[in-house]
Design goal:
mainly alpha
């Protein structure tokens, strides 16, 4: 596959995109094909109903969590909570942009940092739609650079699976050392299996040739992504007046990666918080505290992210990033 120059721009709306890779069907089969067909099936009213279900679940779960909060260890630390949107969101955007550049690199593309950051913001904002919006937006951006649709979806999905696996490995390893060894061993083993599945999916993707350096880079970026997510939860818990340890924050961050993998609700809205409430007591955190901290992280993060995404859309910076399913229409 011919690699476009590093300065190549994403084609503006209306321009015919790159031709499909030879030998690759317009619509992928298997799991990826079902993903796109499901996306089409829940369009319109179905999406709005799912969004309503997610919002209700999120609001009810958060209200129950707040009502059942145990006494605070200290007063609410507002300056610490402000660090969440001021530091946590930029760190997340930067990490996601790096992850996108690594993903594109596996397919032979060199993405400028500014464009990667733009795709990162818009893809994260797209997660507010049912179906993994980040996967579809990132895949659409790669599609417009000449990558076959099946390859773009496959490698993007593989990176998302690797995120879940690395999260489980890190949380498990820390539990083995400083928490609950049986739980840690189970998480560690499960995470290694998930990482292996991600590697297998990436290796079987058309146009991808995995080298050891590529595997190392993917693992490194996912480690950083997990640490950023855990750091945000640590700030949320500190800000709410509690004092968690690193093992607890890492375990709680697993709710985020697992919740995002739930494709039928936007960004795992509500599911992530409920999962956090279930994980918290296992690692020594009250369920209500875990739920409220996770909800606080989401809300404060979305305030800043929505503002950035709104500016990009208003200025037309996101107009060229069409969702994958629109390209198939």
């Amino acid at each position: 596959m011919t690699q476009p120059p590093a300065h190549t721009e994403v084609p503006p709306p209306g321009r015919t995109g790159p031709r499909q890779e030879a030998g690759e069907p317009a619509t992928p089969g298997g799991v990826l094909g079902r993903l796109l067909r499901y996306r089409s099936a829940v369009a319109g009213v179905g999406e709005r109903r799912l969004l309503l279900v997610a919002v209700v679940l999120f609001v009810v779960a958060s209200a129950v969590g707040v009502a059942n909060l145990p006494p605070l260890e200290t007063d609410v630390r507002w300056p610490v909570l402000l660090l969440l949107p001021l530091l946590g969101v930029p760190a997340t955007v930067a990490t996601n942009a790096w992850e996108y550049r690594v993903t594109a690199g596996l397919l032979g593309h060199r993405i400028p940092p500014a464009e990667a950051a733009r795709v990162s913001v818009l893809s994260t904002a797209a997660n507010l739609l049912p179906i993994p919006g980040a996967v579809l937006v990132r895949s659409g951006a790669l599609r417009q650079r000449g990558t076959g649709l099946g390859s773009a979806l496959s490698v993007t999905t593989a990176i998302g699976i690797a995120w879940v696996g690395v999260n489980a490995v890190l949380a498990g390893a820390l539990q083995v050392v400083a928490g609950e060894p049986p739980l840690g061993a189970a998480l560690l083993a499960g995470g290694l299996v998930v990482c292996a599945l991600a590697g297998l999916l990436a290796a079987r993707t058309r146009g991808v040739v995995l080298h050891r350096s590529d595997v190392g880079t993917v693992l490194l970026v996912e480690v950083v992504a997990v640490l950023v997510a855990a750091g945000r939860l640590q700030l949320a818990l500190w800000g709410l007046g509690y004092s968690p340890d690193a093992a607890q924050s890492l375990a709680l961050s697993l709710a985020g990666s697992l919740g995002s993998a739930v494709g039928f609700l936007p960004a795992g809205l509500g599911v992530r918080e409920v999962l956090a409430a279930g994980i918290g007591p296992i690692v020594g955190l009250p369920a209500a505290v875990s739920l409220v901290a996770t909800a606080m992280d989401r809300v404060l993060g979305l305030v800043v992210l929505a503002g950035i995404a709104g500016v990009l859309v208003a200025t037309g910076a996101g107009a060229t990033l069409r969702p994958v399913d629109e390209e198939l229409a």
